[in-house]
Design a protein that fits this description.
This is DNA replication protein. InterPro entries: DUF6456. The protein is mainly alpha-helical. The chain has one domain. The longest helix is centred in the middle third of the chain and has 19 residues. It is 42% helix and 9% strand. The chain contains 6 helices and 2 strands, in the order E-E-H-H-H-H-H-H.
Length: 181
């Protein structure tokens, strides 16, 4: 029996291009955390944190880094769907691996393992806390900090922000007397 999927549409800005993506909120522990509210009424993780985690997972999937139970022979004869134009399947996977490596490096050793476990291997926070011997609800705090660092690496923010300093393109001041002639 097929389950009904809970899809959410999120707006993502990557390299200045705005795109709308669908995320299956039941598939990822991040989706569960994004839907749950704390005592203060706020979600456990912010939308920007959800986007950062889902972006890491998308690259992880494209990089074919997930453990396989069987051999995959499909990559030898075809191009990958969603790969960049002009890239063969293995080049797209290699590029995704490099993006994952840069993201994990930016997250640092304190957060990288947790981000991989939750975002990529889809482990629940209780499982991660139990495996690491952490007190209950510690994982949520550490995950939020790691997702913040990951969002900063991806250039995602809660508010849009321009460059800290931009070039002056033109200067015009009204002529003396206050009005245009």
């Amino acid at each position: 029996m097929a389950r009904e999927r809970k899809l959410a549409r999120l707006e993502v800005t990557v390299d200045g291009v705005i795109a709308e993506v669908e995320v299956d909120l039941d598939e990822s522990p991040l989706g569960w955390l994004a839907r749950r509210r704390g005592r203060d009424g706020r979600a456990f993780i912010a939308p920007v944190q959800l986007l950062a985690g889902e972006r890491l997972r998308a690259d992880f999937t494209r990089a074919q880094m997930s453990p396989r139970l069987t051999a995959d022979w499909s990559a030898t004869a075809r191009r990958g769907r969603g790969s960049s134009p002009g890239m063969i399947f293995s080049e797209a996977a290699l590029a995704a691996r490099e993006r994952v490596a840069r993201a994990i490096e930016a997250a640092g050793p304190e957060f990288s393992g947790l981000l991989l476990d939750v975002c990529c291997f889809l482990k629940g926070l209780e499982e991660v806390e139990r495996e690491r011997g952490w007190p209950a609800r510690t994982g949520k705090i550490v995950l939020a900090l790691g997702l913040d660092r990951l969002a900063r690496h991806y250039g995602l923010g809660v508010a849009a922000q321009g460059p800290s300093r931009s070039q002056l393109r033109a200067w015009s001041a009204p002529p003396e007397g206050g009005g245009a002639r």
